[in-house]
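Q: Mind making up any chain with structure tokens?
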Amino acid sequence: KTVVREIARVARRLKQDVIDAPAVRGILLGLPMALALRRNFVFIRPEPKSMHLKKVVEGEFAPGQRVVLVDDGLSVVDTKKYAVAALQSVGLKVVGVVVLLDAWNSTRSRILQRKRAWLWKQKFPVKIMVGWDDCLHAAEKKRFISHAFAQLMLTYLRDPYAWMRDRKNWMQLKELAPKETSIVLHKSFFA
């Protein structure tokens, strides 16, 4: 309830007629948000349904209406690009994107910045509720993870491509992760 209430508070300022979310995870936030704001809800399929109308955008809307795209996460914007194109193709006007978690909000990786650039060039605002770095800081503050582990993961978030090329990072991860009592590791981690 708290998450939906906060996302709805942010989205309300965008003065939309319709709330949209991509299937499947986005629906978990978009549908209750549409109910909270008393707006129609539409969702976007990853591909047209094979039977009946073969729609990608499902729900009740009218061309020309203002729509806010809501999603659980943001990484390299491919889902957002697909969703915006689908909404525009049926005549809806995208007036904003609201995302719960931004995976790469503090990245310095030129590769990731280039992949994400499309979204920041759009004429509508992009509202992000929280970034992975915020989550790591909060987890460390609550002592869910250690300071050393939080710092290692923050280094990863800044430039994952550079991080993965450095063998020392992997060695440090292998050393630190098993000591984290709040983290469950798959048996393959120890292989």
